[in-house]
Amino acid sequence: MNNEGAVLHTDYYSVGDPVEDHKAPSGPIDERWDSRKFNARLVNPSNRRKLSVIIVGTGLAGSSAAATLGEAGYQVISFCYQDSPRRAHSIAAQGGINAAKNYRNDGDSIYRLFYDTVKGGDYRSRESNVYRLAQVSGQIIDQCVAQGIPFAREYGGLLDNRSFGGVQVSRTFYARGQTGQQLLLGAYQALQRQVAAGTVQVHARHEMLDVIVIEGKARGIVVRDMTTGVIETHFADAVVLATGGYGNAYFLSTNAMGCNVTATWRAHRKGALFANPCFTQIHPTCIPVSGEYQSKLTLMSESLRNDGRIWVPREGGDDRNPRDIPAADRDYYLERIYPAYGNLVPRDVASRAAKNVCDEGRGVGPARLGVYLDFADAIGRLGRGDVEEKYGNLFDMYQQITGENPYQVPMRIYPAVHYTMGGLWVDYDLQSTIPGLFVIGEANFSDHGANRLGASALMQGLADGYFVLPSTINDYLASGPFEKVDESHPAAQEAAAAVRTRVDALLSVNGDRTVDSFHKELGTILWDHCGMERTKEGLTKALRMVRELREEFWRNVTVTGENQELNQTLERAGRVADFFELGELMCIDALHRDESCGSHFRAESRTEEGEALRDDDRFAYVAASEFFGSSGKSVGHGVAG
Ligand SMILES: Cc1cc2nc3c(=O)[nH]c(=O)nc-3n(C[C@H](O)[C@H](O)[C@H](O)COP(=O)(O)OP(=O)(O)OC[C@H]3O[C@@H](n4cnc5c(N)ncnc54)[C@H](O)[C@@H]3O)c2cc1C
Prior knowledge:
single chain, five-stranded mixed sheet
């Protein structure tokens, strides 16, 4: 651990005591997970029936955790804000899930998956966790096959694999371009089986708005019933947040419209440290923004980079039809600059390269903010049928959105916000700094460092939910039985009252500006100054702008409708209010991290060739922040990586 060199921007940030991960086992990296599992305390089956766990979130992480803990015999209470658990954002995942099975016999191994992930994360991931992730990756595939997930197969009957960015082997398992959907249906089936067995209760359309902390431990949550507006409290012996990422802070992103930070941010306000919030992944292959009124961006899966070739015209201002531009006048810039990986460089590298060629004036499309992703060679080599077989639904989606036929003209793509590597800090057991509060899936910070490799989020979500949490949470629950708590406890009453007051405050501003207009302006500030390229000057300016806008939000927002009804404006207002506070922390974190690494590119920290320049001596640590409260000044803690 080293936070000696952390830069002190005394107006925004100060360095607190380092936080140690007491659960992390020592010894050879390949023995740590076995050692932790062996040394963690167990709960015998008859005692499990007496213990309860709240799980917020029903994406891949939350559904798999709820199903597994239910099967183990715990009483599980599951929450999500959608009308059904199977509408969680995980359903949108397209390209695939990684596992070190080495079916292709191309040199893959647990160690190589570990190595690629740590390198891809630009050496900012926690290595013990990543090794564990690689170790359980094979079990995930076995479990999913047993559930009947229809993974693609090759001619011999084995599961097929393709490649994703940042690796030189093929280890990505997929179900056409709908891998997340198929995996979530598997986890949902497993969850529903436990619902039928009586071990899991599901509360859909309930939004968690606070954590209840009693005597220092997470013992429950406050939720709003989104159809009636009733504020409820629910209690358990432990609470798990599986609430996904916060990319929607930027307004425009590839995330589902509902994705938000509220659950983790509310926990942060209650004392959970928030780690590396500035690490946001900008995905290189998205459909470019097409107009002012757009509220969503669409991903074109990274799997397309297996066969599509990325290029721009060699000269700026070349407006010829792309099919009329001869090879000599094209610049396949990724193949040129990074010959070892070609079009499959990691996402951060591909995104910055696209930005650079557009900044040089060589972008394509109406606003010149686009590059070509061209399948002509692949169609020539494999035939249209094969390309359709692999990517058909993605091509259809592209055509429906742009009106262009990608079998005939190259797709146009541009980077967009996609995934957040930051999240609540957790120890090796996936427990936050609030005892009894566990955080899994995209909501935690732990596995992907400064840049997540493609197809590794589904792997992490299912690793956490099916295999890691079910082992580690036992150690905490073994301290039970816990004292019974209910809604009469002062901490529960205080938390519920605070939620009611906040809902009333949002409804009573009665200003002139819509929630979305605030969200859009916040997103533009973050994209411009805390997006693909960051500078000290820009971040300082952004902090000021976010604070001013936040102040205006609470003075001038208009939230129509009532609390006692389905009110999406009210839901969004609460989420945007939290995005404002998170946006501040993202800028503070980006300002303090005076180096470039992975997705975090500080213009001041680059090599002579313009590439990201890491500063391992000063910044090879996890930056975990305390809530800045009314002082506006965050206290950060260096934590062993
Ligand atoms: C378009 C797209 C394609 C992707 N493709 C891939 C891919 O091919 N491979 C890959 O590895 N990764 C992919 N990813 C990333 C991956 O899909 C996500 O990181 C992953 O699915 C997150 O899973 P999760 O279970 O952590 O959270 P989510 O699936 O986001 O689930 C969050 C859950 O939390 C609930 N929730 C949130 N807040 C609250 C609250 N306050 N109260 C109650 N409930 C709450 C929601 O209702 C939901 O059930 C893709 C992402 C996008 C945007």
